[in-house]
């Protein structure tokens, strides 16, 4: 997947969050979107994901050298953010099964393996409503990283994670980045140190 931004700007009401942003995001690379609180990192990630409309400029997507309509983009990406709601009534096992009906997991990877990768195997039959905030974030990361998609968007991926969780996150990214396009919105070095490219949103004010 390649995402090309040309002179992109986003405003809410009369306030511009960023303007004149032209850049490209290419498969096989990892990009960190950096900036202080409120600078527009999550907003840019949502624009890239096609879940928010830009105010000016153009965004083009292509997959395997073919143009991809914006309304199709969600099929090819997985997103993990601390504000992504999980279905609280489901157990972790049920949640992963439910997710896999819409977005299959990587071939050859079983649900127990996915849970083990984030050390949640003992919580397989626990309802999400009884998960701690760090356990929920581990579940979100596992759900995204193991989805069989070429694009991975992570917004503040280490939110609520303890040191062990941060270590597991690093391992997951190293192991499963592969040929994917990975974009991480963050202001925490631990989250984005693995990224090969950095984009500072403050440069586009
Ligand atoms: N739906 C919205 N309506 C109006 N303003 C919004 C909306 N969403 C975001 N904003 C504003 O856009 C700006 C950028 O917000 P955004 O959440 O993208 O920042 P961020 O860099 O991700 O911040 P943080 O590091 O705190 O997560 C902020 O001023 C915010 O108030």
TrEMBL record:
It comes from Compostibacter hankyongensis. SUPFAM superfamilies: P-loop containing nucleoside triphosphate hydrolases. It holds the Pfam family ABC_tran. One of its GO terms (molecular function) is ATP binding. The keyword Metal-binding does not apply. This is ABC transporter ATP-binding protein. SMART domains: AAA (SM00382). Keywords: ATP-binding, Nucleotide-binding, Transport.
């Amino acid at each position: 997947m390649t995402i090309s931004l040309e002179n992109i700007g986003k405003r809410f009401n009369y306030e511009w969050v960023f303007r004149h942003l032209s850049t490209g995001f290419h498969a096989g690379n990892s990009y960190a979107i950096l900036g202080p609180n409120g600078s527009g990192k999550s907003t840019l990630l949502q624009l890239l994901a096609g879940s928010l409309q830009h105010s000016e400029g153009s965004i083009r997507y292509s997959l395997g050298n073919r143009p991809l309509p914006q309304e199709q983009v969600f099929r090819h990406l997985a997103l993990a953010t601390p504000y992504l709601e999980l279905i609280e009534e489901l157990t972790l096992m049920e949640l992963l099964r439910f997710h896999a009906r819409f977005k299959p997991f990587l071939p050859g990877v079983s649900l127990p393996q996915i849970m083990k990768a984030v050390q949640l195997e003992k919580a397989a039959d626990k309802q999400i409503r009884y998960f701690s905030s760090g356990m929920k974030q581990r579940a979100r990361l596992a759900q995204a990283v193991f989805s069989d998609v070429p694009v991975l968007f992570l917004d503040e991926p280490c939110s609520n994670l303890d040191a062990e969780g941060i270590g597991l996150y690093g391992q997951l990214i190293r192991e499963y980045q592969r040929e994917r396009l990975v974009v991480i919105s963050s202001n925490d070095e631990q989250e984005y140190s693995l990224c090969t490219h950095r984009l500072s949103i403050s440069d586009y004010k």
